[in-house]
Design brief:
Length: 356
């Protein structure tokens, strides 16, 4: 750690000014063993933070952050192509990285104000504290593990979509850099879209339909035309889309939870029970069910009218939101208390739910 001024006589040091000039060479020497949580990354961030296979980074890559050009997904794509694991965690504001120990140097943590961008490198006055204190390193490691579990791992396909959103954004910033923190997306005033407020709200785990029959697609298309909606893949912010799933639970769940008119938050599980990182849909209303008697065994499709939000919410976010008001998340329970429904709806701040 001599290159960063840490050693046997010193366990912490403050870097100021152009901090990436000092950090980048050290990170490059450990590029396979870095875990970073950097809220926003700009153009060429992958050159300032040269990560490779074995490393991971957590950013705020929500649609809102990308549209506002706080996060540049082209840098995320560069990391993915270098076999780096990239995650998105909504509302992340931290700037922290952990470099694990090497044969000739201890592990260390860097925490401070600096996002990874040319703006931070060339213009902003930053401050970063470095420490190789074992206790602090362990605390940082535990924190990063928790954030990574709560985050959504990004695929190349998803980052391509984000690149399209970024490239089509009309936001203009100096030198194509990200917004400074005081203007970051979570701090901004955003357009609010109004939707009917549910008086009862279920959170339920469902599986995506990968092999929808042509007849089931036809039913969906009729509903899209009737409600002026679109498919989930083509949904735009503030407009409704039709989500489709099949019931793979018991009949009582279908009768109680999936009854037409019920309001539901769909948690899209992959296998078995949903995990914290599983994506949750915006609160929607069950508007139709259709039974495919030609399938073997027969399948019941459910169609939910859902408003598109800019927020990306995971199952763990919902659990944490309820835990903050002393409520344990219980799937397939119809929540009636106003305070509980408020806590659930607060996950999608750009959607305003108005009582009918």
């Amino acid at each position: 750690m001599d290159t960063l001024g840490l050693g046997t006589n010193r366990t912490a040091r403050l870097l100021t000014g152009s901090v990436w000039t000092q950090l980048t060479p050290v990170i490059a020497a450990r590029q396979h063993s870095v875990t970073a949580a950097i809220a926003h990354v700009g153009a060429d961030a992958h050159t300032h933070l040269p990560l490779r296979s074995g490393s991971s980074i957590i950013v705020d890559a929500t649609v809102r952050a990308v549209e506002q050009k706080s996060t540049n997904p082209h840098s995320l794509m560069a990391w993915l192509k270098a076999d780096v694991r990239v995650y998105s965690l909504p509302h992340l504001h931290a700037k922290m990285l952990l470099c694990e120990a090497t044969d000739d140097s201890d592990a260390f943590v860097a925490v401070g104000s600096a996002n990874v961008s040319q703006r931070s490198q060339a213009m902003l006055q930053e401050a970063v504290v470095l420490t190789d204190s074992p206790d602090t390193v362990d605390e940082a490691r535990s924190c990063l593990v928790d954030w990574r579990q709560r985050a959504t791992q990004l695929t190349i396909a998803r980052v391509r979509e984000l690149c399209d959103i970024f490239d089509q954004s009309t936001v203009t910033l100096p030198d194509d850099e990200e917004l400074p923190d005081e203007q970051a997306p979570e701090e901004q005033t955003h357009e609010v879209h109004q939707w009917p407020r549910p008086s009862k709200l279920f959170v339920t785990q469902v599986s995506a339909v990968d092999d929808m029959s042509a007849e089931a697609e036809f039913e969906r298309d009729l509903l899209i035309e009737k409600h002026g909606a679109t498919t989930e893949e083509n949904a735009t912010v503030g407009k409704p889309y039709i989500a489709v799933f099949c019931n793979d639970g018991d009949r009582k769940t279908a009768q109680d939870v999936y009854a037409e008119g019920n309001h539901v938050v769909l948690v899209w599980k992959v296998r078995g029970r949903a995990k914290r990182r599983c994506i949750a849909s915006e609160p929607g209303q069950v508007i139709h069910k259709w039974i495919d008697y030609g399938a073997s065994p027969e399948r019941t499709y459910y169609y939910v009218l859902v408003p598109r939000s800019t927020a990306e919410v995971a199952y763990g976010d919902i659990a944490d939101g309820l835990d903050a008001i002393g409520v344990t998340l219980d799937d397939d329970i119809g929540y009636l208390r106003r305070s509980v429904i408020d806590a659930l709806l607060a996950q999608w701040p750009d959607l305003e739910f108005v009582a009918g």
